[in-house]
Structure formats: C-alpha cells, structure tokens
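Translate sequence into structure tokens.
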Amino acid sequence: MNEQPNDNLNQTYEVFHRNHNVLRQRLLDALPEPATEPKRVHSEIPMCRCLRGPLMNGRMMKLAAAAAIVLAVLIGIYFLGGSPTGTTIAWAQVAQRMDTINDFTCRMTSWRVPAETAGEAQTREEMTMNFWYSDDYGFKMEQYAGGELVMVEYFLRRTSEGVRIWPQKKAYVRMPLGEEQLAMGPAQKMDPRDWVRRFTTSNFASLGKRKTDGIETEGIETKDLGVIRSASSSYEDYAARLWIDVQTQLPVSIEETYTMNGMRSGGGADRFEWNPGLTATDFEPAIPDDYESR
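Result follows.
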C-alpha cells in the first residue's frame, strides 16, 4: 500500500532536484529587488535545529520538496500574471500574442450622453466605425452616425495615399501621404494591439469571468489614464476594461468610460477577427463614377 505514494514522491523529488535551480532563479527574477537580498531572521536557528532532528527522515524531505514545488508554482503563477484562485489568463503572454497579429478587423464605437440623463437611451449620441487594418496595406474605415454611412476613409501604405469618401455628398478627396504620416499614421492611435499592450503594463484589477456572445471571457480593469487614447487629467470616474477569450487568449472587447464637462462618454472595440488574411483588394477605394473630386 505504501509503494505507490513513495514512487510518486520519488518522481516528484527527482523533478525538483533536476529543476530547482531554474525555479529558484525565475522566482528571484520575478520578486521585487528587496526580496532578493539575503536576510537573517531569528527563525533560522530553530529551523536548522529542526532539520537536524530525527523526524527529518528521507520521506519527510521528499514531502518538503513536493510542497516546495507546489509553492513555487503558485508564486510563479502570481508573478507571471495568473492567479491560484482560478484565473486562466497570463496577461504578459496576451501582450506578446499581439506581436503575431499582422491584420485584423473590428467594430469601434464612441458615444456620449449628458451625465444627468445617462440612463436614458434617447439622449445618447453614438458613432460606429467598421475597421480593417493591415501592417502591409494600411487601413479602411467606414463611419456611421445614426445608422447611416457618413464617411469611408482609406490610409494606403503601398501608394502613399489617403482617400476620404462622403457618400451623402457624393464627394471624395485624395491626399498624398508623406513619410512621417506613413510612419505615424492615424491607425496608430486606433490600434487595439497597442491598447492591449498598455493594459497589461497598467495597474489593473481582475474582473473575473463572464460570457460574451456565448464565449467564455476573462477581464481586467484599470483606472490608469491613456490606456486606450490620450486621456485628459480632467476625466472623472475613468475606467478601461479588457476582455479576453479564455480559449484563444485573444481580445474579445476593449472599452473605456469617463465623465468630462457634464457628459458621460465612452468607446471601445469589439467583434474582432484576428489575422483574417486581408489582401490588397480589401483596401481598394470604391469611388462611384458620379462622385465629385474635391
């Protein structure tokens, strides 16, 4: 009856003996600087005496090693962005995953409402944008107000050109883009990949898990200004939230809310498709023949 537990302990001890230096170094690297400095505490002497006692036999040493492994795993999870209480997202890895995204599509929204009537839907002003982005080709954005398409904008890297189309006015304009514009294009301020990176380095708190359109997601919230956009110090009650698909570890929705000058405002992005395989055709401006150039 005692052979199987001893075998398990032997295996656990062998793993610990083989990997304990690596684990120790990773834990020391994760801890704040003061914690890495050796400290002398009064408990060292009685502990040493206990270790020399007759109860510290081979089996007890193996049990202690197994406990040390469990403790190392729990501490490692904590400092690497997870949680021993059920959190499944390693947030630093989520930011790293953004480096593998070359193109995406999403919906972006922006809204505001008088703070005193924030609960009344009829007072809400909202703008919606469908967004296509590619590192190679640039971006395309469809802007809607009141459910009607009011503008289509293109930022074209390969032709160094910007195009704006106003369907309601049947007009368009083409604009050459300089090197500085191409390097620091407007897409940079609307890039959810950068938002995610800033989220994971902010002072965030866990929001737990929830279902989003049938997807199990896990979220974090930060009060740090400027996570999504350049934020004003006059913002009140600012909060930004990021929700991640637990299975794919990719963003599902990003949002922010704040109050300023008597208006409750917010915005964000959702309906993401990551690396959908966009081509040059997706970024060709569609200008009807009867539209006037400006």
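Note: Residues 3-80 form one domain.
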